[in-house]
Design goal:
Elements lengths: L7 H13 L2 E2 H12 L3 H13 L3 E4 L2 E4 L3 H17 L3 H9 L6 H16 L1
Antiparallel strand pairs: 1-3, 2-3
Helix pairs in contact: 1-2
């Protein structure tokens, strides 16, 4: 993954691939036309750009991922915290929760993640 950046349209397009892989390039063209009103050439341009970034591969018209959706978003999140909060997860959570309250389910989930981490 040489370049972790994707615009909003690329992210939505990547989600189609991740959610349907392996997927034919013809099916991607059909879905892109339906969802984004893209022409076939636009779909292939965006696909090529994402393949050049090392996220996907198009092998004889079948598109598959080289990087999982979870791995991609994990790396992006980590980079965001590193660049914006000097790598401090507590600083990120403080900023995040200053304007948005966590639900009790989210708090429980975070607690279970911390407990699991402490056990390791």
């Amino acid at each position: 993954m040489s370049d972790y950046q994707m615009g909003a349209a690329e992210s939505r397009f990547a989600d189609i691939i991740w959610d349907n892989e392996p997927v034919s390039s013809a099916e991607l063209c059909r879905q892109s036309s339906e969802l984004f009103k893209w022409k076939k050439s636009t779909t292939y341009t965006v696909l090529k750009r994402l393949c050049d970034k090392g996220l996907f591969q198009n092998n004889k018209g079948t598109v598959t991922s080289l990087v999982s959706k979870q791995e991609f978003y994990s790396v992006r999140s980590e980079r965001f915290v590193d660049e914006t909060f000097s790598g401090s997860l507590p600083a990120f959570l403080t900023a995040f929760t200053s304007r948005k309250s966590l639900t009790s389910e989210e708090v429980d989930y975070l607690r279970s993640m911390i407990a699991e981490y402490e056990e390791e």
